[in-house]
């Protein structure tokens, strides 16, 4: 049953409003509740195209008349609850700037890790949400479905990472909170990790068979335990820069993999 969209919420004491405000601001609450918030038409459209279920839709009173919002509302399953907030209340809780004021409360998926025999991307304590989102978006673009995140990696389903990923999360299977031992136990394809301490240049290495690319912490790189089990791969930097941003490095690796398989 759809909640009456004309029922106007004006108080920040409303239970759903308090929950959404906490989820937008606090990683701890997202982990505790197993929920997150997606903001804006683009992410809601991405979720709809992937048939991802919404727990609840929240929108500002003035947004009801927006043509893109009306189109979204017609595509929702009939049982989706809709909560209308006064414009001032919505503005007080949103994390986006000025735009189309609509957001959705969703459950965070928690798939069970099984043996990985295909391509995957491993995020080993990548801590910046923008980097994580960019890597997820690139993985989705090249057709890699499985993403494995060790426990100190930025939350893949945080509002900031969702925006950086532009909705790529809905096209991926993302395993979070993994230990290094989980990676070693379940990933059955060769591990590759970028390193400046090797002569093996990426363009000279065969990437045609299923592999697992590991991208590491922005400052410390891939942890020793994983690096000892991986083949180190160098990205050439003829001008002598010390290192590349992890999202750039990861994107180069994923696209060289695609090139070797489809465009060589």
UniProtKB/TrEMBL annotation:
<dbReference type="InterPro" id="IPR029064">
    <property type="entry name" value="Ribosomal_eL30-like_sf"/>
</dbReference>
<dbReference type="InterPro" id="IPR029028">
    <property type="entry name" value="Alpha/beta_knot_MTases"/>
</dbReference>
<comment type="similarity">
    <text>Belongs to the class IV-like SAM-binding methyltransferase superfamily. RNA methyltransferase TrmH family.</text>
</comment>
<dbReference type="InterPro" id="IPR053888">
    <property type="entry name" value="MRM3-like_sub_bind"/>
</dbReference>
<dbReference type="Pfam" id="PF00588">
    <property type="entry name" value="SpoU_methylase"/>
</dbReference>
<dbReference type="GO" id="GO:0008168">
    <property type="term" value="F:methyltransferase activity"/>
</dbReference>
<dbReference type="Pfam" id="PF22435">
    <property type="entry name" value="MRM3-like_sub_bind"/>
</dbReference>
<dbReference type="GO" id="GO:0032259">
    <property type="term" value="P:methylation"/>
</dbReference>
<feature type="domain" description="tRNA/rRNA methyltransferase SpoU type">
    <location>
        <begin position="121"/>
        <end position="255"/>
    </location>
</feature>
<feature type="domain" description="MRM3-like substrate binding">
    <location>
        <begin position="14"/>
        <end position="93"/>
    </location>
</feature>
<protein>
    <submittedName>
        <fullName>rRNA methyltransferase</fullName>
    </submittedName>
</protein>
<keyword id="KW-0808">Transferase</keyword>
<dbReference type="InterPro" id="IPR001537">
    <property type="entry name" value="SpoU_MeTrfase"/>
</dbReference>
<keyword id="KW-0489">Methyltransferase</keyword>
<dbReference type="InterPro" id="IPR051259">
    <property type="entry name" value="rRNA_Methyltransferase"/>
</dbReference>
<dbReference type="InterPro" id="IPR029026">
    <property type="entry name" value="tRNA_m1G_MTases_N"/>
</dbReference>
